[in-house]
Amino acid sequence: MLDITSLIELLAQPKRIVITTHHKPDGDAIGSSLGLYNYLIQQGHHAKVITPTDYPEYFNWMPGNGEVIIYTENIKESTESIADAEIIFCLDFNTLSRINEMGELVRKSNAIKVLIDHHLEPEDFDDYRCWDINACATAQLVYKFIVEELNNKKLINKDVAACLYTGILTDSASFALPNTTSAVHRITADLIDAGAVNWRIYDLVYNNSSEDRLRFLGICLCCRLEVLYDFNTAIITVSKQDIEKYNIGTGETEGIVNYALSVSGIRLAAFIVERDEKVKLSLRSKGEFPANDICKKYFNGGGHRNAAGGSSTDSLEQVINQFKLILPEYKKLLIQ
Q: Among 3.80.30.20, 3.40.50.150, 3.40.50.300, 3.90.1640.10, what is the CATH number of 4-206?
């Protein structure tokens, strides 16, 4: 593994750098990527953010968004940029399979690979690692990387701050999760001091829904919510027809699972949605319940203890039934 002194020496001169993150980037993925991008360009680096897929339009306001390359829309340019890179930063994912077809391009690249992440069990593909499973967001670790490891706090300007604040805000569920420690609040205070307008960022991210999305949310809560009180579990299930009827785009189902978790007494919530190729699951839990264990064992996924995801090639009905059949295995944890 590369040590920090060697990495600092590499970054002392402008380099060709690619920053990438997981497919269907969320607020932490795109926020940490653009935060790092806005830091690197101040030093004259030739940096490019390449995402494996598109991401929600309500993140388009972030500084640097106009320079993002979406792999599925620009395969040739993306492939050439990865091949030409001297350093590749891999943010908010723990295995190359999380960046789809880009994974093998990154694996084969001769570039120095830097992993900044907070997920369990990282794959051994990187040359330098800033990794902490206790961090509430990868954006928190990018802040730590810049401030503590590179000793360059002075370059956290308003653009860097706005992006990193967005990552922390969204991945901490608006500072509601247990890993939102006092240290996290001190970091966000620094970001606000550096120019992140906290109330404005919240408004851009959370108060920016289309009419269709609000009507879709109403259907989810009125007609698609099932509460299983014997297991302190709530499930919202959404069909492909629902998605099409309300024109639900990338990222517009983000956060709906939290409504199920907000039901009094509920310890585990699931949002199960039928997509074109797979059925996707998003799980949220309270306390010590291991949502990631269910995703890892049964749904080809993983994540954090209280926030995890998975997928299945089975039908929506089969996935719902499988999920319900799993619950007795976890009943002691769910009803304690």
A: 3.90.1640.10
For residue 22, give the nearest of 67, 83, 71 by alpha carbon: 71
Instruction: Quick: pLDDT tens for 188-202.
Output: 999 999 999 999 999
Give the DSSP per-residue string, 151-194.
--GGG--HHHHHHHHHHHHHHTTTTTSTT--HHHHHHHHHHHHT
79-125 residue pLDDT tens: 999 999 999 999 999 999 999 999 999 999 999 999 999 998 999 99
- Angle between helix 316-326 and helix 291-298 axes, rounded to 10 deg: 120
Q: Label residue 18 left, alpha or beta by phi (over 0 means left) and psi (-120 to 50 means alpha).
A: beta
- Rounded-to-integer distance, Cα 145 and Cα 153, Å: 10
Q: Measuring CA to CA, which residue among 130, 104, 100 is closest to residue 118?
A: 130
In the predicted model, is pLDDT for residue 336 greater than 80? no
Contact 269, 258 (CB under 8 A): yes
Sheet with 225-228: list strands edge to edge.
225-228, 233-238, 268-274, 279-285, 307-312, 302-303
- What's domain 211-335's architecture? Roll (3.10)
